[in-house]
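Priority: medium. Attachment 1 of 2:
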């Protein structure tokens, strides 16, 4: 199977990008659909590898999940017959642990493997398991098999406060809350806009979820039933990838549809860097090169800050800035797998040590003071990039590598296209429409 891109870089990218649906909403709406009565119709679902793997996984459990059109998926959990998530299928996709919710809903008991997925640091689910237990679910872990065994002794109720917020953790506990007869309260929640989209979907189908002051309260739901088709929001990460690439290539690209509220921190930083940013109309933005780019330091943080998923793309833009800039990653450990690969193109990037006062509260992962971390890089721009052979090892890093070679002179190969395609729909086609030379080989 062809799993590489052959890219001839150095073109100014110009034209229009229509964004696909958000991966990090699509996956959760599919899983939550298994708790509904009847067919659930989801629109704007991107045909990306993560979604396709999840569709296969859901089908292996006996549920229905079929594409009706390119981006319209019909899901029905009524035929679920298996409460054990297969180890191999589960290990392909990290969100498989969110199947705790529909499987407990249907069977009262389930077996779910420890999740796999993106290779960003350790990525444990310790806080999420603590949350399940706090809401009354009995959870045991068998280190021999790598499986969690969860059992619903009584309807979930009570409250849980995340020690540090978790995006998928907030969503999973919210879905568990859908089974309460009383009330479930989740505190110190994540505030990512993808969670709001999931709440919109669930509340429009009979759920009673209220967000207030960093807290989510789930009341007793009606039986979940879809009243009308649900269209998921656009992918803000995809926008950032194409916007930074457009400007770094000295090009000019319009991108839509996107709600400004999803990207305002990105727009601010782009303007600070001297990139051209213009709101053409509601939900449509133009990103263009308008002269020398300035280096801008960033520190990643949960919404409304500069998102961790955006930093590999930011590194690509900063390679073209006139001076040195810093990226400090706070949310995940080990999110710089692109650095060594970009150096093969001639990029001038180095790891730097950063001392912070209280690392265990500053970083969002579980910080171990006895471990050495590489959380900060310095990018020395502008870099002249040349061709090379690169290997993708995680999704967002993969997009950065493909964008890096699109800026480089000569012909390059990027291996591991299927990892990038876990999160980007029609990547090669969208780049070709902008005038880029890219071929899947
Ligand atoms: N964490 C723990 N224990 C837990 C839960 C989280 O240590 O029980 C740590 C994580 O390892 C991380 C930090 O807490 O260092 C925050 O993790 P969070 O749980 O918020 O991230 P996630 O839910 O695993 C989702 C997205 C990510 C996105 C982050 C941050 C999905 C499927 N994934 O991950 O998206 O970067 O939130 O917004 O929604 C991507 O699309 O490429 C991607 C990685």
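Attachment 2 of 2:
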């Amino acid at each position: 199977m062809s799993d590489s891109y052959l890219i001839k870089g150095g073109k100014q990218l110009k034209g229009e990008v229509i964004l696909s649906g958000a991966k990090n909403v699509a996956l959760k709406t599919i899983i939550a659909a298994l708790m509904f009565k009847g067919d659930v119709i989801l629109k704007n679902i991107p045909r990306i590898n993560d979604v396709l793997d999840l569709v296969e996984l859901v089908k292996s459990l006996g549920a229905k999940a079929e594409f009706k059109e390119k981006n319209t998926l019909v899901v029905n959990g009524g035929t679920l017959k298996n409460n054990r998530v297969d180890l191999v299928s589960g290990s392909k996709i990290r969100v498989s642990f969110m199947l705790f919710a529909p499987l407990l809903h249907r069977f009262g008991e389930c077996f779910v493997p420890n999740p796999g997925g993106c290779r960003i640091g350790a990525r444990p689910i310790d806080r999420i398991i603590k949350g399940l237990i706090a809401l009354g679910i009995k959870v045991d872990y068998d280190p021999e098999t790598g499986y969690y065994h969860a059992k619903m002794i009584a309807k979930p109720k009570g409250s849980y406060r995340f020690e540090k917020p978790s995006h998928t953790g907030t969503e999973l506990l919210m879905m568990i809350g859908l089974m309460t007869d009383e009330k479930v309260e989740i505190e110190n929640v994540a505030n990512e806009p993808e969670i709001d989209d999931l709440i919109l979907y669930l509340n429009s189908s009979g759920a009673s979820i209220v967000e207030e002051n960093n807290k989510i309260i789930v009341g007793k739901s009606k039986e979940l039933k879809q009243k009308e088709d649900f269209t998921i929001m656009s992918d803000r990460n995809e926008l950032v990838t194409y916007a930074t690439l457009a400007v770094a290539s000295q090009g000019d690209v319009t991108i839509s549809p996107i709600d400004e509220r999803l990207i305002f921190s990105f727009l601010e930083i782009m303007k600070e860097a001297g990139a051209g940013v213009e709101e053409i109309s509601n939900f449509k933005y133009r990103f263009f090169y308008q002269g020398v780019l300035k280096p801008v330091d960033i520190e990643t943080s949960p919404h409304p800050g500069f998102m961790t998923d955006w930093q590999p793309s930011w590194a690509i833009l900063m390679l073209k800035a006139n001076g040195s800039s810093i990226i400090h990653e706070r949310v995940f450990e080990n999110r710089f797998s692109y650095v060594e690969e970009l150096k093969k193109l001639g990029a001038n990037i180095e790891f730097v040590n950063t001392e912070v006062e209280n690392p265990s509260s500053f970083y969002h992962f579980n910080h171990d003071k006895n471990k050495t971390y590489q959380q900060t890089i310095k990018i020395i721009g502008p870099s002249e990039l040349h061709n090379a052979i690169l290997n993708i090892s995680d999704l967002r890093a993969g997009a950065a590598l493909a964008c890096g070679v699109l800026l480089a002179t000569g012909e390059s190969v990027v291996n591991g296209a299927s990892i990038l395609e876990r999160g980007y729909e029609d990547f090669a086609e969208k780049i070709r429409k902008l005038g880029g030379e890219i071929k899947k080989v």
